[in-house]
Amino acid sequence: MSNVKSLASCLFCKIVKGEIPCFKLLETDSILAFMDIGPVSRGHCLVIPKYHAEKLADLPDDQMADILPAVAKIAKAAGNDNYNILQNNGRPAHQHVDHVHFHYIPKPTADDTAGLCVGWPSQDLPMDEIKKAYEELKAKLE
């Protein structure tokens, strides 16, 4: 699918353009924050860049400046002691809308009755495997 076609059919781009209504919380020149209409918990909202990029690595650096400050502002305003900030990239990672977006998800209770329920199945990797992964990634960052 071409980028022009995906841009034209993108749900979040339609929200940014005002073609689909939303419960707008914050807006700057580069981001829009609004309530998620399929919430995991009460107060679940999204912060999206107005620039269309499918994955975080596709988003130009100059389009990222307002994202985390907006999430932090929402978190402070909501006043929740416990919450998750989630950002998924690709279908296997549970991304359902092909437009970069960050979830603010309140976690009102310690049990799994509301909010994000996350398992963290850590792998028992030998230290030499961790070191090898580190060296590969570090070399690419330099």
Automatic annotation (TrEMBL):
InterPro entries: HINT, Histidine_triad_HIT, HIT-like, HIT-like_sf. Residues 11-115 form the HIT domain. A motif (Histidine triad motif) lies at residues 99-103. The active site is at H101 (tele-amp-histidine intermediate). GO terms for biological process: nucleotide metabolic process. Signal peptide: none annotated. GO terms for molecular function: catalytic activity. This is HIT domain-containing protein. The gene is HNT1.
